[in-house]
What does this fold into?
Amino acid sequence: MSPVAETPYWWSAVPMAARPPRPLPERADVVVLGSGYTGLSAARTLARAGASVVVLEKETIGWGASSRNGGQVLTGMKLGAAELLARFGPERARELYRSSLEAIDFVERLVSEENIACGFRRSGHLEAACKPAHFERFRRDQELLARAFGHEVRLVPKNELRAELCTDYYHGALLDERSAALQPAQYVHGLAAAAERAGAGLHELTPALHVTKSATGFRIATPRGALEAKDVLVATNGYTGAVTPKLRRRVIPIGSYIVATEPLDAARAQALLPRRRVVFDSKNFLFYFRLSEDNRLLFGGRAQFTPSSASSTRTAAAILRRGMLQVFPGLGDARIEYAWSGSVAFTRDLTPHAGRMDGMAYAMGYCAHGVGIASFLGDAMADAMLGRPDRNPFRGLPFPVIPAYDGRPWFLPFVGLWYKLRDWIH
Ligand SMILES: Cc1cc2nc3c(=O)[nH]c(=O)nc-3n(C[C@H](O)[C@H](O)[C@H](O)COP(=O)(O)OP(=O)(O)OC[C@H]3O[C@@H](n4cnc5c(N)ncnc54)[C@H](O)[C@@H]3O)c2cc1C
It folds into this structure.
């Protein structure tokens, strides 16, 4: 039996090796830290407006979550409709919710304008109910989404679920037709090519080591030399490190894990998800899954509350395979060919944040819900940096520190236990 590849399945379609290094300029209008959706979307917009832009990437283009994720471009935020309304009031909650819809439209437009072949399609998403009570909550959500946000979703009761999702494991689902699917690594590589065409300089294997204030703005030290910038955008999300210590204390990196089966027979794949929707379920320790274009089942989840590493990925792969067989018991003979993980950034208030800290612009903390909003916020932060009208829906929100956190998330296993307990009780 062939061994399981411990790299993202998505990487098999893109060049992940670093390109030959290019000379680092001595100065730029803007230096962007990180080459995921946030950084590249911002770089493209800035360069199109005529700014000189340097993107520094510690690894290779798109290496972080942006080439590893489930490719679900989802409506809404990590916080549900009721929580958004309770926390932010009707007007701000409406603005935040609307931005999640605009973010999907933004990705769709970008993919089309830049000709990015990444399989973008409005697949729709299903949120599957793990308990009957969760389906009852979906009824309230449906009513609230329509009343407060003018957003229509459909309920799929358990006795009709097999038309959408061939399993008896769930107790119905909530269907949102606005959500989309894409191949994340192809999308981030297409975005990198678009940023380069606009004139941005991308520098791989070039971590920012220190950022200090200087007479003209900022001085950014890298192992390949230092450069001066008038402005800096921090776009490091779940990989935020010691170079921006204040931001690091506000986002916790948590591993998210995925396994991919071998390609399934087309009819068998179609039987699992007849409309090829993307799916996530209603637990805290959730499962999320979808089909790839070549009919693999990609099955992901939080699996365990740990930072992403090679050993946690192996443990998670076994947990996820068991989960996959609970949902789809008929897949016992389907070989797992890939298992991988990446870091998502959680914030204390489960809300993304974008603004300025220590003079630098930043956008991060997407709480595993970032394909659309990261792309959108990169563009919005670029506009703000260019002095255009501020479209950042998170402007002015206080960005709370995570108590007792200094970059070592020692408490994650305890948080995991607490969420497991909540899944069991609620
Ligand atoms: C397994 C997994 C599944 C997910 N599934 C989904 C999903 O289905 N739908 C969804 O909406 N979201 C999902 N997410 C979340 C989503 O992928 C992220 O929110 C999004 O990709 C964040 O993009 P980003 O550009 O902000 O950060 P990233 O793509 O993580 O990029 C940050 C980059 O910064 C670089 N970096 C860090 N420090 C430095 C430094 N000092 N100098 C230079 N570069 C540096 C890193 O190397 C990294 O490449 C998932 C995430 C994971 C890991």
